[in-house]
Amino acid sequence: MKRTWMAVLIALAAVALAGAASAPQSRPAGPHKQVIVPKGAPALGLPFSPGLLVGDTLYLSGVIGNDASGQPVAGGFEPELRQAFANAQNVLKAAGMDFPDVVSVTVYLADMKDYAQLNQIYKEYFKTEPLPTRSTVAVAALARGARMEITMTAARTANQ
């Protein structure tokens, strides 16, 4: 009799384990992802979000110094860089943030000759300590003939 009960219990346990293994696994609840699009931003029909807010962290897609038509502004590196910062700031503000909230920046330059000018203009936008981390990378070419592209990550912190 004991053997029969033991066999029944083992069979039930095996069935339960098999059912648990085949049941769909639910993901633990995590931060909600919210697409951030600045008001008045042109709909360029590209397959990415301008910004993605996940919890208190904002991830910005790469921005170039493009105007409302999506083409880089005229006048060379400086106007293009300033427009890129303005475009990034529009995404930051749409998420209730600004440059002091930025924790990481990556700059892609089509020409490393622009590196010194980048640093000079960059200091106008990032003045608050601690400064964000930054990487600068030289690339062969950028979308739409841009001279630079900038990506950023920003975070709301407890001291805000």
Describe this structure in words.
The relative contact order is 0.17. The model has no long low-confidence stretch (mean pLDDT 86). β4, α3 and β5 form a beta-alpha-beta unit. α2 packs parallel to α3. Strands 1-2-3-6-4-5 form a 6-stranded mixed β-sheet, with helices on one face. The protein has 160 residues and is of the alpha+beta class. 31% of the residues lie in helices and 23% in strands. The protein is built from 3 helices and 6 strands, in the order αβββαβαββ. It has a single domain, classed as RutC-like (60s Ribosomal Protein L30, Chain: A, 2-Layer Sandwich).
For this entry, give a set of tags:
60s Ribosomal Protein L30, Chain: A; 31% helix; single chain; 160 residues; alpha+beta; 3 helices; 6 strands
